[in-house]
Design a protein that fits this description.
The chain folds into 3 domains: 158 residues, Beta Polymerase, domain 2, CATH 3.30.460.30; 143 residues, NAD(P)-binding Rossmann-like Domain (Rossmann fold, 3-Layer(aba) Sandwich); 84 residues, no CATH class. 59% of the residues lie in helices and 13% in strands. The protein has 16 helices and 10 strands. It has a 6-stranded parallel beta sheet with strand order 7-6-5-8-9-10. Helix 5 crosses helix 13. The two termini are 26 Å apart.
Length: 420
């Protein structure tokens, strides 16, 4: 049986997630402690800023769910109330579905983000290194990775940007075609400027200048991009030498005016200029947008793009959920068949033992046969046994996938007296 226990950004506030994250990160033998829990056969744990989850193959699901919840609550120092409200537990198909949805980023804070797949792979790799997984979880995780790949290739869930900073970069790419070699001016040195700068660098921009009222803050951010820092006093000059401007200061009024841009364009010989104003109130005079060869977008323009893309992602998520459902069914059927494997092996072993015994009894008359004839008898007997076993083995595999595998296995064990 497969179970999953944990908490995430939907069920627990940041303060609770921080406690559990810290409790799990600080334990070097966490997997060893988890494997020592009674009834846990295989286990792995996933720990990120947004979720901490345990997924395990167990003997008894209800017992394991309680034990694993108790373990997590103790690990994070959670109160009884926090544990009751924040921790969730799933078993069998629900647990498998949740794992596949997490790996495919359908359960992420930003649906479609790619980071979670790498985090799950790292968690699985750690469990493998500690020999904490076996046939059930190994198959589960490979199915999860297969599901994530199908979701990414068969749907458009990750095709459109859903953050303001990334939407800004995508707009710039539409204007210029490529950002390779483009020069960028970041006005402001806050978190939004940093995020946008990271996306720009990741898409080929080569030279970044950071302008800020505090030159020390500008220098601190510019250092991360191997760029240069300037004060706002020389903003006019900087505008003449760049292709893309991202502005996100806390200034009370416009710091980039229509006249500044007009004068700048004369020196630029009307070379294209792309500006994005993320600030509220706005840093760039809206009148700038009326100037030829100048493209200006503000936070509302970007938010409209983000909102539309989120709608698109939700539509694609419906296709992704169908893929997840297909993969859950296939893995669940395999898992049920797995429960019949020991009985199938026992049935074959008993049949082979009977054949050996009867062949020994027949040695007195078989010894009189030619070697070739003895081999023919041996092949004949084994062929008959294999054909007799084919039907019950096939039924066990098929029925265990459709019904409760324990029921059909119990019947077969009783019919063939396998426990005697």
């Amino acid at each position: 049986m497969i179970v999953l226990v944990g908490l995430n950004h939907k069920t627990a506030p940041l303060s609770v997630r921080e406690k559990l994250f810290a409790g799990c990160q600080g334990e070097s033998n966490l997997l060893g402690d988890l494997r020592a829990i009674d009834g846990v056969l295989e286990i792995m744990y996933l720990s990120t800023c947004n979720r901490v989850e345990l997924v395990a193959a167990v003997e008894d699901a209800p017992q394991a769910l309680n034990a694993l919840k108790y373990f997590l609550a103790g690990q994070g120092g959670l109160t009884n109330e926090e544990a009751a409200v924040c921790l969730y537990g799933y078993q069998d198909a629900e647990a498998i579905r949740h794992m596949f949805r997490v790996t495919s980023s359908l359960d992420s804070q930003v649906m479609g983000e790619a980071q979670i797949l790498g985090q799950v792979k790292d968690a699985y790799r750690q469990a493998l290194e500690k020999n904490a997984t076996g046939i059930a979880l190994n198959r589960l995780m490979h199915r999860a990775f297969r599901t994530a790949k199908r979701v990414r290739t068969e749907t458009g869930i990750a095709a459109n940007p859903v953050s303001v900073s990334f939407a800004a970069v995508e707009l710039a790419k539409k204007i210029f075609g490529t950002l390779a070699g483009k020069k960028v001016l970041l006005i402001g040195a806050g978190e939004m400027a940093e995020l946008t700068g990271q996306h720009l660098i990741g898409n080929g921009a080569e030279e970044i200048t950071v302008a800020n009222r505090s030159l020390s803050q500008a220098a601190s951010l510019a250092e991360k991009f191997h760029g240069k820092a300037i004060g706002l006093a020389v903003l006019d000059e900087a505008l003449c030498n760049v292709d893309i401007v991202i502005s996100s200061t806390g200034a009370p009024s416009h710091i980039v005016t229509q006249e500044m841009i007009r004068q700048c364009l004369r020196k630029r010989k009307n070379r294209l200029l792309f500006l994005i104003d993320i600030a509220v109130p706005r840093d760039i005079d809206p009148a700038v947008d009326s100037i030829e060869n100048v493209y200006l977008y503000n936070i509302d323009n970007l938010q409209d793009i983000v909102d539309e893309n989120m709608k698109n992602r939700r539509c694609e998520a419906l296709k992704a959920e169908q893929i997840v459902a297909e993969e859950v069914t296939q893995y669940s059927n395999w898992l049920k068949e797995l429960g019949a494997v020991p009985t199938i092996v026992s049935l074959r072993n008993k049949a082979e033992a009977i054949v050996r015994m009867e062949m020994i009894k027949a040695q007195s008359w078989m010894s009189k046969l030619e070697n070739g004839d003895r081999e023919k008898v041996d092949v004949l007997v084994k062929g008959i046994v294999n054909k007799l076993l084919h039907a019950p083995v096939a039924v066990m595999k098929e029925e265990s996938a459709e019904l409760n595998s324990q029921d059909i296995v119990a019947v077969v064990r009783q019919l063939f007296r396998l426990d005697e």
